[in-house]
Amino acid sequence: MTPADLKMDVSPSAPGGLIIAGSHVPKTTEQLASLIDGRGEKLITITLDVAELLGSPGKTQQMLLSTANTAGEHILNGQDVLIMTSRELITGTDGGSSLNIGSVVAEALVSFLRFLVPRPRYVIVKGGITSSDAASKGLMFKRAEICGQAASGVPLWRCSAPSCKYPNIPYVVFPGNVGERDTLRDLVAQWALPSSDKDGATEWPAMQYQRLGTSGLKISRVILGCMSFGNEKWEGSPWVLPEAEALPLLKKAYDVGINTWDTANTYSNGRSESIIAKAMEVYQIPRSKLVIMTKLYYPVMEDEPDARPQPAVNDGRLVNQMGLSRKHIFEAVEGSLRRLKTAYIDVLQLHRLDVNTSPEEIMRALHDLVQMGKVLYIGASSMRCWQFARLQYTAKMHGWTTFTSMSGLYNLLYREEEREMNPFCNAEGVGLIPWSPNARGLLARPWNFETERSKKDAKTKRWFSSSQNKQIVNRVEQIAKTKGCSMSSVALAWLLKKGACPVVGLDKIERIASASEFLSVKLDDSDVEYLEELYQPLRVEAI
């Protein structure tokens, strides 16, 4: 079966494949030699020493963790990786001890799979016990369906269950004695990504930075949205990642130069902020190297981590636990500082406007926090332009701190910010950091492609139900094909033309690795006109 048959991603940003070999039958060894010789520098080969695997369990696990991290980096770079056991045959003194050696090797390869974080493009496993354990214990296959044959006598499986580590990944069971000498090599070559450079790895543009509005603060042109880190049970959000999965993503973001992280105290009831603090601690990320943006307005229910009141009302058990009173602003900031384990917040944003609190009380409280050094800059999110202007000019009239940023819903499918808010911000020197730049994923994939989130997400249906959306998405897809980039990169490049730094939710290592792709996408005036010309004004949403 070809990559096209499997609908396998072979774009420049696609990850590499993974081949695992634990079998010691002669034919397997011959096939591995052919694979290594035939693929040359296009294949990263990592050998696990069986003698070391039979040593101290603690040292073995540490070695496997290090191996998984190394393999993960290569996979992220689009390189195919072969993990194989050393070819020197080690046998026991009797049948029982020899069988035990096979079990130890199989368990080691299972541990490697469990430690591996990035999702490979495919997984090929050679050897009977190895392929069985890798599927059931390493990849958590409970039930799988056969899709056909990757090669003659070589079955290809897929598991679509959410419990699977990599749902729907092509999984090839390659028996030890099946195939000719070059069968494995030919399969890996057929499924390989097009070469992008001499190392077989894609080189993404270096991250770029720009001033936030007319302030002196520089932020990354991609802002990492951290709403997807926390508690998957919070408001029934299965797309939210727990700490163990979120931490490697934050580390990768830092490594590729995404120095600006956007969160809110209400996200997973404070859990998102706590995970950011954990990342700084675990990876020893200097606080001065990050720009942390957080927000306040909504209640934080730390004693009920799964809860999110809808609607949230400043009364009853939530009285003074939300809104923009001086009391709540100060207490919310103290809570964020505690969870973030930091002495200051770089950019404190109003998540929504509290219409029951005067502009003077709101802006004086924010100004005092800046004067105290607990907040460096202030911003706002999702309100009407006249409301934002009223707050801004209240501060100006009193000589208080003014806003540096505005974060509104803005993308190719929803452009109502262009009526008043964007021109006002440009005139005032306020930076634009729009949220949902890919329209909750609609601009990142072909129109007919659905995900589990898009099927269930009520906000997608409410905000992006216009009949013009399909045509606009189709145009994004057309330009992406012309430019040789992802659809998401086109949508983000369009925002870049508007002077904005988008807040992007990146829930996979490979997406973070390729996040800067849009910086190299050049849209000329005709491209922009083609993307924009079908848009018709919509009702104002998300306020």
What does this structure look like?
This protein is an alpha/beta fold and 543 residues long. It is built from 19 helices and 17 strands. The radius of gyration is 26 Å and the shape is globular.
What does the secondary structure layout of this molecule look like, with pairings?
Layout: H1 3-6, E1 18-21, H2 26-39, E2 43-48, H3 50-53, H4 57-76, E3 80-85, H5 95-115, E4 123-126, H6 128-138, E5 145-151, E6 154-158, E7 171-174, H7 183-190, E8 209-211, E9 218-220, E10 223-225, H8 243-255, E11 260-262, H9 271-282, E12 291-296, H10 326-340, E13 345-350, H11 359-372, E14 375-381, H12 385-398, E15 403-407, H13 421-428, E16 431-432, H14 452-456, H15 458-463, H16 469-483, H17 487-497, E17 503-505, H18 509-513, H19 525-532
Which features would summarize this protein structure in a list?
single chain; 543 residues; alpha/beta; eight-stranded parallel beta sheet; seven-stranded mixed beta sheet; 19 helices; 14% strand; globular; oxidoreductase
